Amino acid sequence: MHQTTEIIVAATGASGVPYTIRLLELLTEVPSVSLVHFLATDIASIIAKDESGKSWDEIIGSLKNNSKIIPYENNDFSAPFASGNSSVDAMVIVPCSMKTLAALASGFSSNLILRAADVIVKESKKLIIVPRETPLHLIHLKNMLLLKKTGAVILPAMPAFYFKPHSIADIIDFIVAKILLQLNISHPIIQLWKK
C-alpha cells in the first residue's frame, strides 16, 4: 500500500473522542507517517474531558511517539496547511459534528479546521469525514451528499459485529481501521473480510 506521510487530524464537537485518540496513537506508530497536525474545536476539548477525563494536551502527552504530533490552535491561520502549498497528504475529521459538516458543505472557512478541509478539497487530496450523529435528517444527508460529490470520503462511525468484538476497544479499532484503509496505511489492526 502507498503510505501517506503527513496527515491532519481534527476533532470537532461530537461524541467520539476515543476514535480520535486511537487514530492519533496508531498514526504515531506507523514509521512512514512523519507528521500529524492536530486540531480541536473548543467543544471537542470539552468533550475530550467528558469522555476521557483528560485534556488534549494530556492525551497527546500520554502517547508513545507524541513528537510526531503538532497541535495547533483552531484560529491559527498561519499554519502551513492553511495554504495549498503545504505538504499535507490527507485530512481526517473525527468525530465530525453536524455544524462542521454544514460549514464544510457551504465552503464556510471561519476556523483552521474548515480552512484546512477547504484546502484539502481544492487541492484534490483526501478528506475523510467521520460523522457521529444519529438519527440524520434531510439537511445532514444533503450536506454529506454535497461533500461526497466534491470528493470527500464519508465514513460514519458505524461499527460492524461480524468480526465478533469482545470489547469497546475492538469496536473503536474497527472504525479506526476503516480510516487507515482510506489513508492507504497498513496496520495490524486491519482485519480484512474472509482473510
Protein model, in words:
Keywords: Flavoprotein, FMN, Prenyltransferase, Transferase. FMN binds at residues 13-15, 41, 97-100, 132. This is Flavin prenyltransferase UbiX. Residues 6-181 form the Flavoprotein domain. Belongs to the UbiX/PAD1 family. By secondary structure, the protein is α/β, with parallel strands linked by helices. It has one domain (6-182): Flavin prenyltransferase-like (Rossmann fold, 3-Layer(aba) Sandwich), CATH 3.40.50. The protein is 40% helix and 15% strand. It is built from 7 helices and 6 strands, in the order βαβααββααβαβα. The chain has helices at 17-29, 42-52, 56-62, 98-106, 112-122, 138-149, 168-182, and strands spanning 6-11, 35-40, 69-71, 90-96, 126-131, 153-154. Strands 3-2-1-4-5-6 form a 6-stranded parallel β-sheet, sandwiched between helices. α1 (17-29) crosses α7. The longest helix has 15 residues, at 168-182. The chain is globular. 41% of the residues are buried. The model has no long low-confidence stretch (mean pLDDT 94).
Helix content: 40-55%
CATH topology: Rossmann fold
How many separate structural domains? 1
**Largest beta-sheet characterization:** 6 strands, parallel
Order of helical and strand elements: EHEHHEEHHEHEH
> Which CATH class?
Alpha Beta
Q: Compute the number of strand runs.
A: 6
Helix- and strand-based class?
alpha/beta
Overall geometric form: globular
Count the helices. How many?
Answer: 7
Rounded to an integer in angstroms, the radius of gyration calculated over CA atoms is 16 Å
CATH homologous superfamily - what is it? Answer: Flavin prenyltransferase-like
Strand order of the largest sheet: 3-2-1-4-5-6
Q: Low-confidence stretches at least 5 residues in length (pLDDT < 50)?
A: none
Strand content: 15-25%
In CATH, the architecture is 3-Layer(aba) Sandwich
